[in-house]
């Protein structure tokens, strides 16, 4: 039998997350939104979202809210990822594959550099 | 779509759009009767009988951004191509239940695919929904309920890296264990 994760493990995780939160004290949250309508899913949105979650986990990035939403209404650009840094305008990226998603997190979300070549214009 | 897990994600998105606060996903593999059954049940706003009757028609959708809805007709066709069946039940104000069954060994049955990623996307991406997941192969089962996790977390977001890792590992291990147990049983005979 492999070890099943227990809720006690989760309690420890919470304690540590709380400590971290107290040290940092809200530097403002960033929201990352992935379009998950039928078209988005068929175009690979789940793999895009997975890459976003993996990057957050691997790079240990706190204070990022990841959300999914239904159809964004720009089918030909799916998968679509939107980044909303608090206090700034939302930026929409189109045809985002997992590699691009990773770059968006590292460069836009962490460094604050918008990647204009991926941006949906207009 | 190349995986049943992607269909599950798509149907669950409908449940989210219907304003559900509680969504249950069940995947039941029965190797004795050679069936695979998927159920997605929600407590969302539901549909009237006319809409339910028309829902499998690709030209009916409640969406306003585009006129053609393909998710449900697509899923239905997938099930029916595998000697399976498809059923949708709904009631206004009560919720909707979508079930699809497949002949497990049917040559055209697409693989279940990456169930853990589908679930993780849903759980992390819509934290306001109470998610319940039930996975069974024959008599072996794994049940996941995110409510106890959220109670312990008390305000720590699910997208916190260590929390996400925890949920991901619980899902991956739970699914893997069911498969290993079922396989071990098959190999040792009964």
What's the short version?
The complex is a heterodimer of chains A (122) and B (190). Chain A is an alpha+beta fold.
Task: Walk me through what this model shows.
The complex is a heterodimer of chains A (122) and B (190). Chain A is an alpha+beta fold and 122 residues long. Chain A contains 4 helices and 4 strands, in the order H-E-H-H-E-E-E-H. A 4-stranded mixed sheet of chain A has the order 2-1-3-4, with helices on one face. In chain A, 35% of the residues are buried. Chain B is α+β, with helices and mostly antiparallel strands and 190 residues long. Chain B has a 6-stranded mixed sheet with strand order 3-4-2-1-5-6. In chain B, strand 5 (130-137) and strand 6 (140-145) form a beta hairpin. Chain B has helices at residues 4-17, 49-54, 71-80, 115-125, 147-153, 161-187; strands at 22-30, 35-42, 85-91, 95-103, 130-137, 140-145. In chain B, 41% of the residues are buried. Chain B starts with a helix and ends with a helix. The longest helix of chain B has 27 residues, at 161-187. The chains are: A alpha+beta (122), B alpha+beta (190).
Largest sheet of chain A: 4 strands, mixed
CATH architecture of chain A: 3-Layer(aba) Sandwich
- Rounded mean pLDDT of chain A is 88
Spatial strand arrangement across the major sheet of chain A: 2-1-3-4
Shape of chain B: flat
Arithmetic mean pLDDT of chain B: 91
Q: What count of helical segments of chain B does DSSP give?
A: 6
Q: Into which percent range does the helicity of residues of chain A fall?
A: 40-55%
The protein's oligomeric status is heterodimer
Number of strands of chain A: 4
Annotated CATH homologous superfamily of chain B: Histidine kinase-like ATPase, C-terminal domain
């Amino acid at each position: 039998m492999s070890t099943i994760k227990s809720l006690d493990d989760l309690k420890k995780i919470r304690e540590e997350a709380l400590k971290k939160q107290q040290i940092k004290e809200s530097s403002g949250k960033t929201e990352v939104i992935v379009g998950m309508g039928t078209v988005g899913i068929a175009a690979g949105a789940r793999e895009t979202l997975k890459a976003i979650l993996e990057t957050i986990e691997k790079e240990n990035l706190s204070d990022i809210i990841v959300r999914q939403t239904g159809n964004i209404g720009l089918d030909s650009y799916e998968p679509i990822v939107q980044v909303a840094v608090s206090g700034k305008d939302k930026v929409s990226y189109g045809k985002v594959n997992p590699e691009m998603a990773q770059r968006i997190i590292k460069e836009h979300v962490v460094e604050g550099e918008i990647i204009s070549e991926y941006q949906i214009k207009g | 779509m190349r995986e049943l897990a992607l269909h599950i994600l798509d149907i669950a998105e409908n449940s989210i759009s219907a304003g559900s606060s509680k969504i249950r996903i069940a995947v039941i593999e029965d190797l004795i009767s050679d069936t695979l059954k998927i159920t997605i049940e929600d407590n969302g706003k539901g549909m009237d009988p006319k809409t339910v009757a028309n829902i499998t028609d690709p030209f009916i959708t409640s969406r306003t951004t585009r006129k053609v809805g393909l998710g449900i007709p697509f899923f239905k066709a997938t099930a029916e191509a595998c000697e399976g069946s498809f059923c949708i039940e709904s009631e206004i104000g009560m919720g909707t239940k979508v079930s699809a069954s497949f002949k497990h060994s049917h040559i055209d049955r697409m693989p279940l695919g990456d169930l853990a990623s589908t679930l993780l996307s849903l759980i992390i991406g819509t934290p306001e929904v109470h998610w319940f997941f039930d996975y069974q192969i024959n008599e072996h089962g794994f049940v996941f309920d995110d409510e106890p996790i959220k109670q312990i977390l008390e305000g720590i977001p699910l997208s916190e890296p260590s929390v996400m890792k925890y949920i991901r590992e619980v899902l991956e291990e739970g699914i893997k264990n069911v498969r290993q147990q079922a396989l071990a049983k098959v190999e040792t005979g009964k």
